[in-house]
Design goal:
270 residues, Rossmann fold, globular, 32% helix
Amino acid sequence: MSTTTTDLLISRLGGVAPRYGIVLGSGLGTLVETVRDPLRIPYSDLPSFPQSSVSGHAGEMVIGFLGAVPVVMLSGRVHYYERGDANAMRTPIEVLKGLGVTALILTNSAGSLREDMPPGSVMRIADHINFSGTNPLIGLESDDRFVGMTNAYDGDLAARMEAAAAKLDIPLSSGVYMWFSGPSFETPAEIRMARVLGADAVGMSTVPEVLIARHLGLKVAAASVITNFGAGMTGAELSHHETKDMAPIGGKRLAAILSEVIAGEGRDHA
């Protein structure tokens, strides 16, 4: 079915071939507003596209330009916890590759495990820990399922994110993201464990998309907008409402960084 969806989109794009795909997490729709000449297509109009049940996810594809560079954004994702399917985002990512995308940028909202990375901060994901106990590549029957993850996050894209943040004078942390299955938030004991294991942030998404993208041969970069401190760090209870309220603050910073990364590439090659 992903081939059918890809063909449908190609027929509507008029020769535009996006090189970058961007997945936008909860409350991170700011970047969509910077897209020039946007074509917006609801997921419900795309055969085989999964529909998210999570508030704060628009559920639409947006195709257009950042500067002179063609991009395609997925405003909203489906999470493992919605259906118990780690492979839920395979079709959308396959479609992105079919449209010509070679680099996938993933964004999410996450909880911080570091006092020096408060809500509103942005963290570039340098590596991850898959703590969910599952993997979207389970069940594949060829040897290409054995995907190397030593360089899961592309070094060139990481360097360009760092350079863009420095140019814009936006603080950008880097760290390790730990994927919990959700949908419940972590306990204080789990947060203490995550810190001992070397995690800097925790969340309920992104890692399965990284695994799918690397299996498909795409370059990957990822970033978290910090919306809260981990459970037990402040004594306050966590909520999805807090995530939606805080995500736009760091989201504006991340949108500026990613716009500079992509539009800046167009200026450099002009």
